[in-house]
Design brief:
about 220 residues; alpha+beta; seven-stranded mixed sheet; 7 helices; about 40% helix; elongated
């Protein structure tokens, strides 16, 4: 789906989340409503932004953004009525946004993923994430709740995936270097091993994508 990046940044900086989701990202309108949530004797106003296949987007705007422990408690309260959701915590002065998505995997504790956007940032990093949860009209017919959840995970759970990839790469690189012989300098050996591993990974990628036959070679 082609995105208007200028429009995305403009809506982000205006804190126009309803327009961002429904006009730019292809989410559906939700009945505009707000409801109070009570946490530690404090009332937090939760406003509905948009939804997609039952997955809700909420904004929690206070005088100042709640601290991390409170944000977790607010999430737990919202989960009681909207199991899968995304919460955007903002301050009344419209200077900061904290986007919170929670990974829920069977047999594992909840993993809170949060990303902060402030007015002095370009917004490019957040837009990169939002591009993963943009939906074209052609996707509507076959789209399910699971499909939207997978896209959210792809958008907001990348650090864990990247860390796992890096650790696996380092392990394979070390194993590959043990087979090398005849390279006199450590620096040259490290360079050679890294280049070869990168090229092997690229070939593996295009083979898995079907761009070359798996029987080649």
């Amino acid at each position: 789906m082609s995105l208007d990046r200028k429009a995305l940044i403009d809506r982000l900086k205006k804190f126009d989340f309803t327009g961002l989701f429904t006009q730019e990202l292809g989410w559906d309108w939700n009945s505009p409503n707000s409801r109070p949530i009570h946490v530690d004797e404090q009332v937090y106003d939760i406003r509905s932004i948009a939804q997609k296949r039952g997955i809700q987007v909420f904004e929690c705007r206070q005088g100042r953004v709640p601290d991390y422990p409170i944000r977790r408690k607010i999430d737990r309260e919202i989960t009681k009525s909207a199991y899968e959701h995304l919460i955007i915590f903002t301050d009344s002065a419209k200077t900061v946004q904290i986007w919170q998505w929670v990974s829920k995997e069977p047999g594992k504790p909840k993993a809170y993923r949060e990303y902060t956007f402030t007015m002095n940032q370009s917004g490019e990093a957040l837009i990169q994430r939002l591009s993963h949860i943009a939906f074209a009209l052609s996707e509507e017919e076959g789209l399910t709740l699971i499909g939207v959840t997978i896209k959210l995970k792809d958008a907001f759970d990348k650090e864990r995936i990247t860390k796992r990839f890096y650790e696996r790469f380092q392990k394979e690189l070390k194993a590959f270097k043990e087979f090398l012989q005849g390279i006199p300098q450590d620096e040259m050996e490290n360079w050679y091993a890294s280049v070869m591993m990168s090229r092997l990974m690229f070939i593996y990628f295009i083979q898995k994508k079907g761009f070359i036959s798996q029987e080649c070679g």
